[in-house]
Specification:
This protein is an alpha/beta fold and 629 residues long. It has 4 domains: 10-168 and 322-340, ABC transporter type 1, transmembrane domain (ABC transporter transmembrane region fold, Up-down Bundle); 179-292; 348-385, no CATH class; 390-622, Rossmann fold, CATH 3.40.50. Helices cover 59% and strands 13% of the residues. It has 19 helices and 16 strands. The protein has helices at 17-28, 32-54, 56-67, 76-123, 127-131, 135-177, 179-226, 228-233, 237-289, 295-337, 429-436, 459-464, 480-485, 493-502, 506-509, 529-543, 559-573, 608-614, 617-622, and strands at residues 348-354, 360-362, 369-375, 381-385, 390-397, 406-413, 418-422, 444-449, 452-453, 466-469, 478-479, 519-520, 547-551, 577-581, 593-598, 601-606. The strands form 4 sheets. It has a 6-stranded mixed β-sheet with strand order 10-13-14-7-15-16, sandwiched between helices. The chain has a 4-stranded antiparallel β-sheet with strand order 2-1-3-4. The chain has a 4-stranded antiparallel β-sheet with strand order 6-5-8-9, covered by helices on one side. Strand 13 (547-551), helix 17 (559-573) and strand 14 form a beta-alpha-beta unit. Helix 2 runs antiparallel to helix 4, helix 2 runs parallel beside helix 6 (135-177) and helix 3 (56-67) runs antiparallel to helix 10 (295-337).
Length: 629
């Protein structure tokens, strides 16, 4: 099996070539003038090649043959013809250079637009999409598929167009020069075509196999690098090496077979073309002896035969490359066709102020007060102050239609209250927080935020009023200051430092090599897990939201560090509605209400003392009679 993040190459052909090509043409349409110009220069390049070969006929018949036996021939006409021939070929070379430059500009511009469209569209996709697609699968759209498109646009299509023009022009010239010899060449080319089809088919099959094996090897290497510590802990180095050698051997066999057939194809084609050339030359010589053809015609014709078989081989190769690229384009368009996250909300979060009577009104500048701007069907607008009152009313939810995760959940969190969720893995704790954020919409029941159904609130505004600290902390490449400021991009350096002090991150940050200007690489590989978690808490603190969600926020912090930040966390949570998910029950003792979940249902609720007195599931968990998993 391939490792994580790797896709198998199931085939090279697109499912709907016409539709994919049509959509790709739309992207190219903005380069219409450049495409026409490139096509003209491709035509010039191909024509120069065809015309240049024809010059051999007059050169041989009018100059070389008459010069035979002459002691002092007049070379002026011959030199003029050679100079003209050089000019023709120079024109062809110039045309090739120009159209290659134009196509390079078109391909890079088109791929830039595709990448921008893909990345922009990904930002609008729902969380569910990323839950069901691996990172490697999505990255392959930006790397493998884009790369095949680049090859097709910059080389494949121009070469195919030029080869087609060349084959057509050469064939017409061969017919003009000698129809009889042309029939002979076609017969030989038919034999060559059968050879290409037979050997090329074998080569394509093994190259496909090679791609699959490369995916397996790369995936295995990636997986083992990520899990190297686990490998060493359990002394599985030899087992890992044996498995790698097995996969590597399979790749070697597939690669050897693929390149064997690919390697013998060109020599066979080359030898067959020599045989065809020799037979044509012999036939031409017989015709010349019998006065049916002149030497100039034979010379030009033989050169045309050399220029006829090569473009045909190129056309065959380019068609495979183009089909592979179109299959990549199809996968790109599948991503672009994925339905974006729907948002039917119309309630907005706005700056607000209060008049002398306590009435809320909208403000254009920050005032420290936020309000929900709620337009109504009758044209009126009401404002509700943002307080952080969150209520679940008989909420039932499942990620899949036939699998319910939450069953009739009802709860409330008044402004400033701390609500804790306790339960084993899969009980539905994180799902509740996902629903508050509208990462998923509720099919049954309602969630109200300050009395407003959250389905009516615009998702961006809703999420702006919340901050989350996740168990799996993600830091971005940049300075420590940048990562803290990610919580609120307009925060000043002083506000970021205050947030770090609040989360007790300031003490370790100032000991970093460049303090707050220390660059973080590779998702914080130069920091400990606890330090990364502290930065995530500081990031949430600088956002200064009325509602805070802590999903195992202190899971990676040792007990000493946890004690250090407890005061800071209390300050951070003061006056805010806080939802806490924790395995360490000691962190939720001071919660206003603790919800014990099991199989998607709240089986116990109350304060720490209430639940201890109840001596139910929470009591068993707290006293160690049961363990959270």
């Amino acid at each position: 099996m391939p490792g994580p993040g790797r896709r198998q190459h199931g085939g090279f052909k697109p499912q709907n070539t016409g539709k994919t090509l049509g959509r790709l043409i739309k992207y190219l349409s903005c380069y219409r003038l450049q495409l026409i110009t490139a096509a003209i220069f491709i035509l010039i390049s191909a024509a120069a090649n065809v015309v240049g070969i024809y010059f051999l006929k007059p050169i041989i018949n009018n100059y070389i043959v008459p010069f035979i036996g002459q002691k002092n021939p007049d070379l002026s006409g011959f030199i003029k013809m050679v100079m003209l021939l050089c000019l023709v070929y120079l024109t062809g070379v110039s045309g090739t250079y120009i159209y290659n430059r134009i196509m390079l500009n078109i391909s890079t511009g088109t791929l830039k637009k595709l990448r921008v469209d893909m990345f922009t569209h990904m930002q609008s996709l729902p969380i569910k999409f990323f839950d069901t697609h691996t990172h490697g699968e999505l990255m392959s759209r930006f790397t493998n598929d884009i790369d095949t498109l680049r090859e097709m646009l910059s080389h494949g299509i121009p070469n195919l167009f030029q080869s087609s023009i060349t084959v057509t022009g050469v064939f017409l010239m061969m017919l003009i020069l000698s129809p009889l010899l042309t029939i002979l060449v076609i017969f030989m080319l038919f034999l060559m075509f059968l050879t290409v089809r037979k050997i090329g088919g074998k080569s394509a099959m093994y190259f496909k196999k090679q791609q699959e094996e490369i995916g397996k090897v790369n995936g295995y290497i990636e997986e083992m690098i990520e899990g190297q510590k686990v490998v060493k802990v359990f002394n599985h180095e030899n087992t890992v090496k044996e498995r790698f050698e097995e996969l590597n051997e399979q790749l070697r066999q597939a690669s050897t077979s693929a390149h064997t057939f690919a390697g013998i194809l060109m020599p066979i084609m080359g030898n067959l073309s020599y045989v065809q050339y020799a037979i044509t030359a012999a036939a031409g010589a017989v015709m010349a002896v019998n006065g049916l053809i002149d030497l100039g015609t034979i010379g030009s014709f033989l050169q045309y035969t050399r220029s006829f078989s090569q473009p045909i081989t190129q056309i065959s190769q380019q068609m495979n490359s183009i089909l592979n690229a179109l299959a990549g384009a199809e996968r790109i368009f599948q991503l672009l066709d994925t339905e974006p996250e729907s948002d039917n909300g119309y309630v907005e979060l706005v700056y607000a102020s209060k008049d002398e009577n306590g009435n809320i009104k909208e403000s254009d500048t920050p005032t420290g007060i936020w309000a929900w701007k709620h337009p109504h069907s009758d044209g009126t607008v009401t404002y509700t102050e943002l307080n952080g009152d969150v209520r679940f009313e008989d909420v039932t939810f499942g990620y899949e239609e036939n699998k319910t995760v939450l069953k009739g959940i009802s709860l409330y969190a008044k402004p400033g209250q701390k609500i804790a969720f306790v339960g084993s893995t899969g009980a539905g704790k994180t799902t509740i927080t996902n629903l508050i954020n509208r990462f998923y919409d509720v099919p049954d029941g309602k969630i109200r935020y300050d009395g407003i159904n959250i389905n009516k609130i615009k998702k961006a505004d809703l999420r702006r009023s919340l901050a989350m600290v996740l168990q799996d902390t993600h830091l971005f490449t940049g300075t420590v200051m940048d990562n803290i400021r990610y919580g609120r991009l307009d925060a000043t350096d002083e506000e970021c430092i205050e947030a770090a002090k609040l989360a007790n991150a300031h003490s370790f940050i100032k000991h970093l090599p460049q303090g707050y200007n220390t660059i973080i690489h590779a998702d914080g590989s130069n920091l400990s897990q606890g330090q990364k978690q502290l930065l995530a808490i500081a990031r949430a603190a600088v956002a200064n939201p009325p509602v805070l969600i802590l999903d195992e926020a202190t899971s990676s912090i040792d007990t000493r560090t946890e004690a250090l930040i407890e005061k800071g966390m209390d300050t951070l949570m003061e006056g805010r509605t806080v939802f806490v998910i924790a395995h360490r029950l000691s962190t939720v003792r001071n919660a206003n209400a603790i919800m014990v979940l099991e199989n998607g249902e709240i089986i116990e609720r109350g304060t720490h003392d209430d639940l201890i007195a109840l001596k139910g599931k929470y009591y068993q968990l707290y006293t160690g009679m049961l363990e959270l998993s």
